[in-house]
Automatic annotation (TrEMBL):
PROSITE patterns: ABC_TRANSPORTER_1, ABC_TRANSPORTER_2
Compositionally biased intervals (Acidic residues): 31-48
Name of the protein in its database record: ABC transporter
Keyword tags: ATP-binding, Nucleotide-binding, Transport
Pfam families, sorted: ABC_tran
Domain of life: Bacteria
Biased composition annotated in UniProt, kind: Basic and acidic residues: 1-10
Taxonomic classification: Bacteria, Bacillati, Bacillota, Bacilli, Bacillales
Domain ABC transporter: 62-280
Region (Disordered): 1-52
GO molecular function: ATP binding; ATP hydrolysis activity; transmembrane transporter activity
Organism field: Paenibacillus selenitireducens
């Protein structure tokens, strides 16, 4: 099933390494991003500061306890996730592997706060995601989670640069930071020489790397990717996996991705094999 629920994300404030208090921030922040924000004076001051290297979280990024998910279908309840237990540690690349229909996308949606479990618990950076309403989960997602889709999800008329910049613009990142952050992210994914190409002028692998740059631009802690190599040949798929390994190291992000592809499993730190809604 396609995972098409696109979200734009807000930035992790690069000037702090502290745990975000999402609950207070929900009360304090406007959830809908303005398209072209004017930086506040204090934001301007912050731009001059050196962005510090972030430390990895001390505890797990994700803890999932006994998660069940039922979907109503007619008069029946379809039992899709059956007692899922898992963890993602800081700096890990975790893969969910399973056949079509086994429940991978359903689980990924729950991990990213796009959906909620019927029962069970999901802790994101120690916070009880499963108890939060949609506003709180949306804010956490905008600040700390990036999404990558099988079909790249780029704006077709915008260049690679403009696509990544759009992410920062939508995320209320101060304008003075855009240039260096866009350049940094596109260099990180190996597209320094293709920054001004539009998607149709790029290969599938290059487009997916733009999508990765776009997903990490706001400095999320967790990247969720649904079949990110499914549309790519094996060489391009390997390039994407190399980029994932690189950004885990340099951006202090953890990655959880789904895949059908047995050839890329060896780069994972941990593989969860899913069969009919359960890990085996
Ligand atoms: N909103 C929904 N309502 C009803 N059934 C659903 C819903 N979402 C998913 N399902 C069902 O849950 C099962 C698991 O779907 P899911 O998309 O999670 O599998 P998947 O492993 O990601 O498959 P694929 O690899 O093909 O994307 C499928 O039988 C699907 O039809």
């Amino acid at each position: 099933m396609a995972w098409f629920r696109k979200r734009s994300d807000l930035p992790q404030d690069p000037s702090t390494d502290e745990e975000p208090d999402y609950i207070e921030q929900v009360a304090e922040q406007e959830l809908v991003a303005e398209p072209e924000p004017e930086p506040e004076p204090e934001q301007e001051e912050r731009l001059e500061e050196e962005v510090p290297a972030r430390e990895l979280d001390a505890g797990p990024i994700l803890v999932v306890n006994q998660v069940e998910r039922f979907f109503p279908v007619g008069n029946e309840q379809l039992h899709v996730l059956k007692g899922i237990q898992m963890e993602v540690q800081p700096g890990q690349l975790v893969m969910l592997r399973g056949r079509s229909g086994s429940g991978k996308t359903t689980l990924l949606n729950i991990l990213g706060g796009l959906d909620q479990p019927s029962s069970g618990e999901v802790y994101f950076r120690g916070n009880p995601f499963h108890t939060w309403d949609d506003d709180k989960r949306t804010l956490a997602r905008r600040m700390d989670i990036g999404f990558i889709f099988q079909a790249f999800a780029l704006m077709p008329l915008l260049s690679a640069w403009e696509n990544v910049e759009l992410s920062l613009r939508m995320a209320n990142v101060p304008k003075a930071q855009w240039k260096s952050r866009v350049e940094h992210c596109l260099e990180l994914v190996g597209l320094a020489k293709r920054m001004h190409h539009r998607p149709f002028e790029l290969s599938g692998g290059e487009q997916q790397r733009v999508a990765i740059a776009k997903a990490i631009a706001h400095r999320p802690r967790l990247l969720l990717a649904d079949e990110p190599t499914a549309e790519l040949d094996s060489q391009m798929g390997a390039q994407v996996m190399a980029v994932f390994k690189n950004i885990i190291r340099t951006e202090q992000v953890s990655i959880c991705m789904t895949t059908h592809d047995p050839t890329i499993l060896e780069v994972a730190d941990h593989v969860y094999e899913m069969v009919d809604g359960k890990f085996v």
